[in-house]
Specification:
The protein has 380 residues and is an alpha/beta fold. It has 15 helices and 11 strands. The radius of gyration is 20 Å and the shape is globular.
Length: 380
Amino acid sequence: MSPRERLICTLKGEIPDRVPVAPFVQEEYLSFYYPDKNSVDRVVDATELANELDFDLMAKHRGLEQPHWFRRSRPGWELRHSSAVSDGMERKRLEITTPKRVFVKEEARPYVGAGSAGGAFMPTKYLLGNREEIESFFEAAPALADEDLREMRETVSTWKKILGDRGVLAPWGFAGVFNFAADLIGMENLYVAPYENKELYGYMMEHIANAMCGYDQALVQAGADCVGIQGHMAGGRTTGTDFFREFVQPYEKQVIDAIHEAGGFSVYHNCGFARALYDNYRELGMSVWETVSEPPRGDNCLAEAKQLLGDRICLLGNLDQVDFLKRATPAELGVRTREIVRAGKPGGRYIFSTSDYLEKGTPRENVVAMIEAARDEGHY
């Protein structure tokens, strides 16, 4: 099987020739691996790396992650973007002018050159605050236009030509519903929002979910195989199963179902604590849950997750790339990788990967040892 055929087969719940081996590759490791490149790309350079090291690539590009609301101006919706780098920080400012009001968002992240593109910005000023701002924003927020759809088609087509049969295209949509709402109003405000004003909370979440459904379906129709959904902010350490079921799950499921209805696969990302939410995850029915992180960065056990979820959900993970992959010997990596593959392999619906993206400073020989052991142990 080609890497693409292997991944598609696994995502469908069928048994491939072997377990796919798909480490999460983004800008931090690519800029470390290719130090002479001024910029790196999650499709172009990740495909080059996957061809060199022979692994199955799930290309998780962020180029269409920003929703159409924030990418270009249109009548009644004028955007002004600005950015600057100083004192080791990259700062961005977004100003949206509508007929009724002006919205401003400011955010920042550490600046480390080419590798910065993989890092997330942290808001320093949230876009929305009170009820009037929330209602005014969604009243003015534009629908997807032909120009937005054309940009999606052209971008995805370019990515797919570069990727070829080396893997599947799994770009991020604009987060999960709860994650995106947290970015709009702040996590500390979002957790109390359904108790302070349940009607307003539902209004906001429904508008986000509806927009996301249309956007993610357009991504699939443009040619994306999978759509990434960031779901880690409503994790098992901060969110109880009852809160999740009432205030998070209906909106996340709406988006997941929309992706499936369009013919795509959903990749739900929670790289931390999730054990308390396994019943919720079964009910959500995402195609893939990544990354089944084990202690100390999560509370999951791959064998247990496989038993409880693996008949319904494809699991992706879960070798520790923060410490173990960087510090272990190649022989130690071979042993641990084989243990992980044996836990995830039975019955299919498993993709071997790291528990998050490969980090700078990871020895090449260790990455090679991990990939080779996973390929060897993964044969059905």
